[in-house]
């Protein structure tokens, strides 16, 4: 009769240290125990492999907490890497645990496993080799890079070879080297990239698009004269404002000169906020989206003859890490519009038309 | 002039519907408070309602707009999917909430409704775009529809009507209702709602069948032994005794929900996902279902009525002891049917439909039972016969799909046991599906009728049921069954006559 204690700790989310080479065997044994145990009403579910890359224990713990919440909607095999390349002693240590939650209705526990691998010093270079055999076959692999992968180019290059998607968040980068980012993203044909900065813009893009569904309003798109984007000083707010502007520009086939002439990015002193107001003025009217101060809502208004001018208030979409990742995992396709917007943002920055510094337009 | 909105590219969410006024008849009823308003609030919360959106409640009781808003706010606070309620979103919705007192028999009240709607058109830009929702007892549908026609509120394609089931009590009454409705509204303006079609798993039937190459080749008389569709309820009539005693299980569930499930599971692949194309295929399937002649009901049907019993450890009353039910009622609370589909694909394959109240558990599922493999290889060596493969689509609760297959038990002897491969929506995608009414209301606002029932679908379904109802008029009373069991013993004998057994869901 197998000892139930390791199973209980494993399913309760307690880490069990294992040899990297033995991870898969240990997992098989634990799940087998779950199937044999009298109280083993456990379903193991997995839709994809999620490889999370972190560089500190704090970041690893945060990633683990996010994955734990995420797996209730997106069951996966999670492999959380914690790399400390600057450590003096080389090492590679693995542990396994499970994230379980009750599925609706039947009261069965749905569990997903997490494999954590800590690598230090020269051991970091062995991470890709450790990850590859641990990936579940026939499932797509998502590489979630917490941090700036451009600063770990070699390791990233090796890990990205196993990934179908890369999810990252430029809003949390200290600086965004647009040219380098565009080179890398646009140069990758096999792997799909998702920047959570772009995901945060989905709400604003949706509201903007909604303005122009009625044919009377759609005509105004060709007559847009100015676009004013007001943003706060929150992390990545300026970059998102430029990405939003580039999205609009590329959807309307604007050249970078047209962008520079018609588009203005303004910062407002608000340490937390991202986008605050978008104001599109055309020859015939005005279209405004405004985040309401102190509220979790935004209001959009149209001023155009013969068009309903009632303001429309909507709840902001959540922008916590779990919600953003969840949105991305729900829609795994290639973000071709993002790629075009990134290319245009890069051209604008390279030509010196816009700056990522908050001193407004150059 | 831009033909399409270039900003829509890459945006996953569907576009918002045009500004619209939803008029709810039966605005103070249970359906409005528990389902319709919470669903509309959820849509507002998700930003899926247009700015110029209005809801007009039409009811007999006198109340002000503000009283109506306060009542609905309480309903939303209790039943919405997004709780706690966001006050700003509610305020936005409440600004467009109005109440019109009126009587369905009084033409002047509909004229007043027309004036209010014209005012809303001016104030909120709804531009004549209206959705009339019949959340009333079915007997009032014809009167309301006639009044709308007389008041000139049904004379453009932008004015649509949503009709709740039941769509008639028989083929004749269904035809009469359709004639009344289509005498005022064009068929394209009519949306017959069946909330089963708004459920994710029901929509997934088409995806399962036509997006997975492995199933469709097996989906025919060559490989399928029979199909069982079960919709079991633990509830009794729950205060609806008056209505239910006139309707019964066949009218209440089988004619609408279960025939829709049958159509989706058995229809031919549509050539596109357009509403009319899918509905054409469903009608084609229903046309192929062999009607049950009145004098054959004993051969093809079993009906039952629950007697007192116990459910989940509690004693429950029998049907005839329920409030507003006649003490000598002959109404069916349990139905089992055997149907055949006379087409190339399903020739000779029986479809067993089973529905009942006060059954041991609440479950809705479709089980496709495959034929047994040839016994030449394993048959002689096994202690028990091989179990056949079953594909089960669970609609509620625990939405998902499972497949039963045979596997060798590890060991030195040949021991084969059935194993179940189980996919659960809750386990794989979490449980964030929108409520069925949310999906259906949104589709109605967008003018998408794919998930609504067309008039000829409803009628065709009655053609199949009419013979049964006629046959039952002269047949013996329904067989009694103890509440908390799987129906009368006669239902077991009914399927066993065919050499088959009911599944235990």
Brief overview, please?
The complex is a heterodimer of chains A (362) and B (505). Chain A has 362 residues and is an alpha/beta fold.
Helix content, binned percent of chain B: 25-40%
Overall geometry of chain B: globular
Number of structurally distinct domains of chain B: 2
Fraction in helix of chain A = 25-40%
Q: Are there runs of chain A of 5+ residues with pLDDT below 50, and where?
A: none
Shape label of chain A: elongated
Task: Give the CATH level 1 class of the largest domain in chain B.
Answer: Alpha Beta
**Helical run tally of chain A:** 12
Strand order of the largest sheet of chain B: 16-15-14-13-7-12-11-8-17
Major sheet characteristics of chain A:
9 strands, mixed
Give a structural overview.
Chain A is 35% helix and 27% strand. Chain A is of the alpha/beta class and 362 residues long. Chain B has two domains: 21-193, NAD(P)-binding Rossmann-like Domain (Rossmann fold, 3-Layer(aba) Sandwich), CATH 3.40.50; 198-371 and 447-496, Dihydrodipicolinate Reductase, domain 2 (2-Layer Sandwich), CATH 3.30.360.10. Chain B has helices at residues 30-45, 65-79, 87-94, 107-124, 141-150, 171-184, 200-210, 213-216, 241-266, 275-288, 297-300, 425-429, 436-446, 455-474, 489-496; strands at 20-25, 53-59, 97-101, 130-134, 159-164, 190-193, 224-232, 301-307, 309-311, 314-316, 334-340, 350-356, 363-370, 390-396, 400-408, 416-424, 479-482. Chain B has a nine-stranded mixed beta sheet with strand order 16-15-14-13-7-12-11-8-17, sandwiched between helices. Chain B starts with 19 loop residues before the first strand and ends in a 9-residue tail after the last helix. The model of chain B has no long low-confidence stretch (mean pLDDT 90). Chains A and B meet through helix 7, helix 8, strand 14, strand 15 and helix 12 of A and helix 3 and helix 12 of B.
């Amino acid at each position: 009769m197998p000892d139930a204690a390791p199973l209980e700790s494993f399913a309760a989310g307690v880490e069990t240290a294992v040899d990297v080479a033995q991870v898969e065997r240990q997992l098989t044994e634990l799940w087998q125990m779950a199937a044999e145990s009298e109280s083993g009403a456990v379903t193991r579910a997995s839709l994809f492999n999620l490889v999370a890359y972190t560089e500190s224990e704090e970041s690893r713990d945060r990633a683990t907490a996010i994955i734990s919440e995420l797996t209730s909607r997106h069951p996966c095999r999670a492999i959380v890497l914690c790399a400390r390349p600057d450590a003096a002693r080389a090492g590679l240590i693995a542990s396994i645990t499970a994230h379980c939650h009750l599925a609706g209705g039947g009261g069965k526990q749905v569990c997903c496993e997490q494999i954590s691998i800590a690598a230090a010093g020269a051991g970091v270079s062995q991470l890709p080799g450790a990850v590859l055999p641990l990936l579940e076959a026939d499932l797509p692999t998502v590489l979630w890079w917490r941090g700036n992968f451009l600063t770990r180019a070699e390791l990233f290059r090796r890990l990205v070879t196993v990934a179908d998607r890369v999810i990252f968040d430029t809003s949390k980068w200290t600086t965004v080297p647009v040219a380098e980012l565009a080179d890398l993203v646009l140069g990758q044909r096999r792997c799909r990239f998702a920047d959570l900065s772009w995901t945060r813009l989905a709400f604003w893009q949706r509201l903007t698009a909604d303005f122009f569904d009625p044919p009377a309003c759609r005509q105004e798109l060709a007559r847009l004269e100015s676009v004013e984007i007001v943003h706060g000083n929150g992390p990545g707010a300026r970059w998102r404002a430029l990405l939003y502007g580039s999205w609009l520009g590329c959807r309307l086939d604007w050249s970078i000169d047209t962008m520079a002439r018609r588009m203005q990015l303004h910062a407002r002193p608000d340490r937390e906020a991202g986008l605050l107001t978008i104001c599109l003025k055309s020859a015939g009217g005005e279209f405004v989206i405004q985040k309401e101060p102190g509220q979790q809502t935004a209001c959009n208004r149209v001023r155009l003859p013969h068009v309903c001018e009632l303001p429309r208030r909507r709840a902001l979409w959540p922008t916590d890490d779990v919600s953003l990742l969840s949105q991305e995992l729900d829609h795994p396709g290639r973000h071709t519009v993002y790629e075009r917007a990134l290319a245009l943002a890069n051209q604008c920055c390279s030509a010196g038309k816009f700056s990522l510094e908050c001193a407004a337009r150059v | 002039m831009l033909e399409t909105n270039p900003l829509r590219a890459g945006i996953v969410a569907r576009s918002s519907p045009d500004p619209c006024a939803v008029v709810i008849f039966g605005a103070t009823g249970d359906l409005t408070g528990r389902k319709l308003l919470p669903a509309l609030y959820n849509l507002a919360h998700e930003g899926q309602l247009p700015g110029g959106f209005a809801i007009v409640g039409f009811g007999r009781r006198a109340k002000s707009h503000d009283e109506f808003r306060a009542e609905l706010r309480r309903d939303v606070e209790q039943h919405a999917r997004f709780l706690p309620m966001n006050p700003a979103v509610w305020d936005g919705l409440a600004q467009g909430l109005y109440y019109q007192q009126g009587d369905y028999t009084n033409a002047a009240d509909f004229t007043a409704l027309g004036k209010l709607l014209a005012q809303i058109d001016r104030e909120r830009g709804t531009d004549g775009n209206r959705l009339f929702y019949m959340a009333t007892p079915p007997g009032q549908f014809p009167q309301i529809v006639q009044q709308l026609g007389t008041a000139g509120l049904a004379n453009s394609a932008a004015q649509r009507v949503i009709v709740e089931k039941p769509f008639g009590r028989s083929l004749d009454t269904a035809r009469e209702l359709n004639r009344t409705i289509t005498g005022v509204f064009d068929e394209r303006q009519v949306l017959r709602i069946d909330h089963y079609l708004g459920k994710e798993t029901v929509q997934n039937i088409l995806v399962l069948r036509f997006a997975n190459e492995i199933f469709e080749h097996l989906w025919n008389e060559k490989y399928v032994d029979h199909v069982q569709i079960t919709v079991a309820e633990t509830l009794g009539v729950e205060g609806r005794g008056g209505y239910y005693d006139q309707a019964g299980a066949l009218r209440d569930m089988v004619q609408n929900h279960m025939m829709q499930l049958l159509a989706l599971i058995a229809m031919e692949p549509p050539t596109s996902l357009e509403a009319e194309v899918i509905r054409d295929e469903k009608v084609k399937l229903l046309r192929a279902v062999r009607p049950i002649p009145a004098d054959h009901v004993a051969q093809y049907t079993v009906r039952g009525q629950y007697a007192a019993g116990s459910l989940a450890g509690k004693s429950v009353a029998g049907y005839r002891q329920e409030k507003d039910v006649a003490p000598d009622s002959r109404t069916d609370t349990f139905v089992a049917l055997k149907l055949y589909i006379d087409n190339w694909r399903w020739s000779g394959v029986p479809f067993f439909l089973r529905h009942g109240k006060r059954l041991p558990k609440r479950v809705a599922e479709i089980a496709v039972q495959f034929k047994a493999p040839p016994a030449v290889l394993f048959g002689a060596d096994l202690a028990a016969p091989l179990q056949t493969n079953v594909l089960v689509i669970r609609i509620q609760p625990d939405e998902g799909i499972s497949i039963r297959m045979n596997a060798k038990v590890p060991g030195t002897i040949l021991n084969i046991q059935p194993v179940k491969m189980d996919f659960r929506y809750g386990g794989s995608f979490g449980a964030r599906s929108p409520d069925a009414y949310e999906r259906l209301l949104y589709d109605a606002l967008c003018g998408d009728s794919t998930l609504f029932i067309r008039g000829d679908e409803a009628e065709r379904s009655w053609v199949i049921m009419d013979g049964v109802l006629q046959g039952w008029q002269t047949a013996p009373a329904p067989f009694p069954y103890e509440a908390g069991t799987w129906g009368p013993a006669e239902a077991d004998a009914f399927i066993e006559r065919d050499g088959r057994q009911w599944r235990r869901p």
